[in-house]
What we know:
Helix content: 25-40%
Oligomer: single chain
Number of helices: 9
Shape: elongated
Amino acid sequence: xxxxxxxxxxxxxxxxxxxxxxxxxxxxxxxxxxxxxxxxxxxxxxxxxxxxxxxxxxxxxxxxxxxxxxxxxxxxxxxxxxxxxxxxxxxxxxxxxxxxxxxxxxxxxxxxxxxxxxxxxxxxxxxxxxxxxxxxxxxxxxxxxxxxxxxxxxxxxxxxxxxxxxxxxxxxxxxxxxxxxxxxxxxxxxxxxxxxxxxxxxxxxxxxxxxxxxxxxxxxxxxxxxxxxxxxxxxxxxxxxxxxxxxxxxxxxxxxxxxxxxxxxxxxxx
Length: 270
């Protein structure tokens, strides 16, 4: 199961709106014959990919999967049907799927087909990777991470306004790794005007994993030359109020942004 969880980590932040699942298959003699995770974009699912890798070796084997196999027709056929058709002997599952379309039906269907099922193996470790999916399905809200930095004396900038790195190179790499696991980033126009950040993943091997960017910019003060627009390959959504000028909306749209108008609060901000 730990190998399946390691596979799921490779998919974290890359599979929306499906969960990042990992799957490992051992043949009937206990030898590893497949290891896979949910593909980028959410399909194919981990189980389908692993079964394709394993081929005939899956028959009579054991499947380790971090989330209960789906039992409904979505973008792909039910994974539990594929496992049954492959004639696996045993399925070991870390977590049941709380999605009402599944929620035990995948395991029940496997049991009815004569497959031995074990549930709850390494559940906490698997849940740490699936936390975003579980929060969305169970509570209807995302998992939110706050990124902040301060110097040892509690400051966030020099008194004269000069810019200095507050974090070292190792921690900046960690930040980029964490960023690659997110579906979206949220920031404010103040950060854009002060620092002109790119908000991308720049660590080696992560450059293709920059999440979508959402900016709170009530009056659309973000310059069209801001580095966050980059090469135009990433979605950038500007959240403004109805009082933002049409000229600014048009200019930022031309620069590649999606402009969304939201109600203003008592202070006139989104």
